[in-house]
C-alpha cells in the first residue's frame, strides 16, 4: 500500500461487536470469524473496515473488546450481556498501549487484530458483575442482565497475534480489581 505521507499509518479503532452473537460458536473468536452486525454501531464499523481495505492507506484495524475503566462507576440498570455469557473486557491502559504500538510496529501494518484483555479477563457475565458488586457491598442478585433472547455481542477473543506483535496486555483482571479495591479503601479513608 502507498500513502500520501511516507511512513504514515492509520490505526482504525473497530470493535468486536462486528462479530455479532457468537454464543453458539466455540471460543475464542478469531479475526477470521464472520461479521454479523446486531446494531447500527457494528454496521458502521464493518463498513469502515471495508473502506479501509479498499483504500491505498497503510492501516492497522483493531477490533477492540469492551473497555474497562479502573474507576468506580454507577452500575448500569441492565448489564449489556447475559449472566452466563462469555465475557472478555480489556483494561483502558492496555487499549492505549495497543493503539500506540500499532503506530510504531511495522509488522502490524495491513493486519486486523483482536484487542482483548487476554486469558485472565476471560470470565462470564455474572462473575464480572459479582466482582464489581462485592466491591460496593451489593449482592449480585440485585443485578439485571440482558435476557437470553437479546444477548450482547461479548465473548472471548483470540488476541494471540496482537499480543505477540504489540505486547500490550500489561494489566490482568486481578490488577484491575485491585485498583478498584484501592479506590474504595481511599474513599472510605476520606470519609473518616
TrEMBL record:
In which organism is this protein found?
Answer: Entotheonella factor
Annotated Gene3D superfamilies: NAD(P)-binding Rossmann-like Domain
Q: Which domain of life is it from?
A: Bacteria
Protein name as it appears in the record: NAD-dependent epimerase/dehydratase domain-containing protein
* InterPro entries reported in the protein's UniProt record: NAD(P)-bd_dom_sf
Amino acid at each position: 500500500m502507498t500513502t500520501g505521507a511516507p511512513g504514515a499509518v492509520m490505526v482504525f479503532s473497530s470493535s468486536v461487536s462486528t462479530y455479532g452473537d457468537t454464543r453458539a460458536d466455540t471460543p475464542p473468536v478469531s479475526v477470521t470469524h464472520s461479521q454479523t452486525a446486531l446494531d447500527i454501531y457494528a454496521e458502521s464499523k464493518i463498513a469502515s473496515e471495508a473502506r479501509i481495505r479498499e483504500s491505498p492507506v497503510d492501516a492497522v484495524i483493531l477490533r477492540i473488546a469492551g473497555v474497562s475503566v479502573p474507576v468506580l462507576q454507577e452500575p448500569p440498570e441492565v448489564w449489556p450481556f447475559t449472566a452466563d455469557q462469555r465475557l472478555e473486557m480489556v483494561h483502558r491502559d492496555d487499549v492505549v498501549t495497543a493503539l500506540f504500538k500499532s503506530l510504531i510496529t511495522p509488522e502490524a501494518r495491513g493486519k486486523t487484530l483482536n484487542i482483548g484483555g487476554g486469558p485472565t479477563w476471560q470470565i462470564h457475565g455474572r462473575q464480572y458483575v459479582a466482582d464489581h458488586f462485592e466491591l460496593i457491598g451489593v449482592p449480585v442478585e440485585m443485578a439485571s442482565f440482558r435476557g437470553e433472547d437479546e444477548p450482547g455481542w461479548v465473548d472471548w477473543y483470540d488476541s494471540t497475534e496482537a499480543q505477540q506483535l504489540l505486547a500490550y496486555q500489561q494489566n490482568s483482571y486481578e490488577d484491575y480489581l485491585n485498583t478498584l479495591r484501592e479506590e474504595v479503601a481511599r474513599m472510605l479513608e476520606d470519609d473518616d
